[in-house]
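new request in #modeling-help
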Amino acid sequence: MTDRIAFTLNGKPVAPRADPTAPLLDVLRNTLGQTGARYGCGAELCGACMVLVDDVPAYACSREVGTVAGRVVTTVEGLAGHALIRAFLDEQAGQCGYCLSGIIVSAAALLAANPSPTRAEIAAALEPHLCRCGAHPRILRAVAKAAQMLREGAAA
Amino acid sequence: MIANTLPKSLADNPRLDRWLQFRPDGRLRVCVGKVEIGQGIVTALAQIAADELDVPLARIDMLSGDTDEAPDEGNTSGSQSIEIGGASLRMVCAEARAVFLAEAAVLLHCVPEELAVAQGAMLWLGRPTGQSYWTLAPRVSLAREATGAVAAKPRAARAVIGRSVPRLDLPAKLAGGGYVHDMALPGMRHARVLRQPRPGATLAALDEAAIRKAAGGEMEVLRSGDFVAFLADSETVARRAAVAAPAYARWEGVDTLTPAMGEAMWLRGLPADDRALGAPVAAHSGLLKHQASYSRPYVAHAALGPSCAVAWMRDGHLTIWSHVQGVYPLRQSVAGALRLDPASITVHHAHGAGCYGHNAADDAALDAAAIAQRRPGVPVRVLWQREDEFGFEPLGTAMLVRLAASLGPDGRPVDLTTEIWSGPHVGGARAAAALLATRVLPDPPPAPVPNEPSEPNPGAGTRNAVPYYDIPAHRILHHFVARPPVRTSALRGLGALPNVFALECFLDELAVFSKTDPVAYRLSLLADPRARAVVQRAAAMAGWERRGAAGSGTGLGIGFARYKNRSGYAAVVAEVVVEQAVRLTRVWCAADAGLAINPDGVVNQLEGGIVQAASFVLKEQVVLDGAGVASRNWDSYPILRFPEIPEIETVLMDGGDEPPLGVGECTMGPTAAAIGNAVAHALGARIRDMPFTRERIVAALA
Ligand code: FES
Ligand code: FES
């Protein structure tokens, strides 16, 4: 029942052998060794598994891997150089950190569409994400800071 | 008896080399028993070592939570990591430094007083000597016991403590790794376990063929007694088996729960061990009396990542990687459950998702260990399904708190009775026989009857029940319910949140009786200047004087506590708007944590506590129905979400050189109370039961 499923992951071509109906999350973590997307609920209820598929946030826990054939998938590992990572470190935005990779993925999509989001717009974009540690205030600040860094970088 | 003066962690592990190793590669390894559970403790401990030894942070490697190589500091809980673990490490480092300086003095023919340390190197009268900890290490033995006789540095001499430094663990986590969930070992198999729906239930039938079909791939069904696990090379296959399995398993002897059993009120009808402590009952006839009851239902730790563990049995030795709060206690319970010699088990702490208490980490570790024991040579990774995490983790117990006061002519309480109904908060829930897999493996030991003391301090169900206010007579009546309908264990602050919520809401009610402003009322009862300072500061930050009459739909409320009456102080003011639901708009917090090792980390914890407490008060309740917990995912167990997060302003008071106080829990009770009081102010009517649902808002206004 396994096929080769070719897609682009974090800028590189991959073609894992997988059951096309398996969750993208399992293939990313176990076959491709990219553990940034995390299992939280398996039901599109927490956002821990969020990845970008063609630049749009998608739940990897419910997305069948067969549906990303030929597409571009980005996980938090693919955002290593993004201003968001710097901003999250600067703001020390996180406690246990389990929620962060999904949140950063959604934030990246937000900032691509809206370079100057308000606090309310950031909160709305992160609405699909839960954080049990109450790190929200810092996360909101970190996303705003990343937006500012990107704006200043673009201006410079 | 020097040992008695040492902090507990050090008294239990007095050898210095258990804590510190200057290694030939020029690095310092610091071994600690307290573990990272999202609170930043390991970073704060590294700061303590760096400061006391004058070694750069960048040359320190931390090893935390390891039964082979790190000291046994029990569990990481109750704000004690800094107070006890930190104090121990500081003493260890002070003594090690003195030992090294003494050796350097011999070598350099000088007196230790002429020597100093900078960046790990020894200086004589300010000049380099060519000696460092590492050059001296071969000559100096740390295989000696701490004496407690060496003074730690004075505050003025410290450079790293008290400064905000970045968390050591965050970069790896932002790069996509860092958790036990992410471990991959050669030949590792993925496992899921079929859970016994209720204690005492027995497995009458299991349709393995149907489960195999649903799994859709190579899979092994491992059975031992009523313990059933599904193992596969593919996690997808193991998960599919686990998702399908409950429908193909027939259990007998499953008792049925009802939603009413999930309410705190239900505890009053259950058998209880009744304890009384404090002042004898006094008759204050003729005085104004007031009484009211408050409650919290069962709540979940609900870590964002379900519990996970990896176990591997090799040549008769079992190695476990787990996100438990205590590696040594886990080793003990796994040894008991699997009838192994503890010496044949190693437990390594690995990061998990923040849970702030005793969740299913221990259960998942025993699951993995039980499977690994039966499949020697194969590394086994167990990850719980989200539905199982909600369904089977030990919960934070429901509590009912009834307060009754007699007021003197000046409107201040002269006599107060706190009556508490509570299930267990600690009480042996980590014992081998209390872990889930133990119950279904062959020959289970009898389940222990939980017990815990009713002491005023630190206490469990009675934690923070004694008011930190000047009230002439106070007593506690504690009804300890050993067997509530669900398994319960430690959750952030134990009884402190319900007890502080109750007391602080009750104080506002008394203030109304005496026609006094709630802040002024508190100050009239508070002697401790540090307590008064946080209350005044939080009120000033919030612009308390603008607080108008009750019933406008907008409310301002305050709550205060000193956690455990001896740890961190916090005063919190909440602003709410109440329409259909409660909207928490702003929060101000003033806290005093003594000397804050890592101020930014302290603020992070204070704010995390505020958000989590707000979530408990406004949203959270475990629903019991049918065969146990019915709220099995985030849709039926909602928590606070991003758009609902208030603006939070936090001020850390200058704690001077006061001993560092734990802060992981200290904002929880005050926040719950501040919201309770703000909602009462907004509505002109009080809600006394958590969570503050729409129905309760409507009922309060009726
Ligand atoms: S794991 Fe996908 S949304 Fe929770
Ligand atoms: S930091 Fe722990 S879940 Fe967000």
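bot summary: The first strand of chain B starts at residue 20 and ends at 22.
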